[in-house]
Amino acid sequence: MTRLSGKNCIITGAAGGIGLETSILFAQNGANVLMSDVNKEALDKALTTVKNLAKDAKVETFVCDVSKEDQVEAMIKAVDSWGGLDVIFNNAGIMHAEDADAVDTPERIWDLTHNINVKGVWYGCKHAVLSFRRHSKKKASVINTASVVALVGSATPQLAYTASKGAVLALTRELGIVHAREGFRFNSLCPAPLNTPLLQDWLGDDKEKRYRREVHFPTGRFGEAIEQAQMVVFLASDDSSFVNAQEMIVDGGMTRAYVTPE
Ligand code: NAD
């Protein structure tokens, strides 16, 4: 598989569900991959997994907190010696357990969520553009992770998270237009709830809580992280050369359903 041959790619949140699956697919598709995460221990473990599954690929790690601009700048400059960045997947994000509705969300949770989910994506986009220009790139791709909650309201609220993902959609769309003539594409990924440890551990054996969510899927199941990663490979590759400023919804039809099959 060579869809990403020769492309220098950075993935943030690379130690987690979507980021790790994307790192594996990128490496297997011939990309040079810089896996980045704030959690060094998890990142080291993720690197071993990727190296085992893509033995010949160039894969390195960089510890970075995306809410700190100097760290994001250093992360992107780390691939200068590779020939400069071609693709960045700004994927790191959090959904905090104390996030709630308009009344109960603590301000510090709002700020923390927005510092990582929104400012982190902005810094990633800003330093990617500076890098693309520094290396005179004529085409480049930026993919930012939003969520279906940026598109549809949820009766189980996480207001800070929802607002942050709405911001990701809006800023990505605008950047896609601003930089179109430079050849820099910006698209966002909107995943539905996934079968990742994060969500599944939280749902546990609580059948009612699980049903409350599963019933909204026409397919009758949650998505898998690798199903998101497949879309990211497409958006990163030249196969999507005319796809720009879009919201790519990977949700098994969830946001299109009125009533789902029995
Ligand atoms: P995850 O928690 O498994 O992975 C997120 C990764 O981001 C973790 O490895 C974590 O260490 C890292 N991270 C957290 N804060 C960071 C920071 N400040 N700087 C750098 N890295 C940081 O979650 P996931 O399910 O893989 O989620 C990835 C993205 O997808 C997130 O933006 C999330 O909001 C979004 N998303 C997830 C789902 C889902 O159901 N899992 C649904 C919609 C959207």
UniProtKB/TrEMBL annotation:
NADP recorded as keyword: yes
GO MF term (any one): oxidoreductase activity
Pfam family, one: adh_short_C2
Entries under InterPro entries matching the protein: NAD(P)-bd_dom_sf, Sc_DH/Rdtase_CS, SDR_fam
Keywords: NADP, Oxidoreductase
Family membership noted in the UniProt record: Belongs to the short-chain dehydrogenases/reductases (SDR) family.
Protein name, UniProt field: Short-chain dehydrogenase/reductase
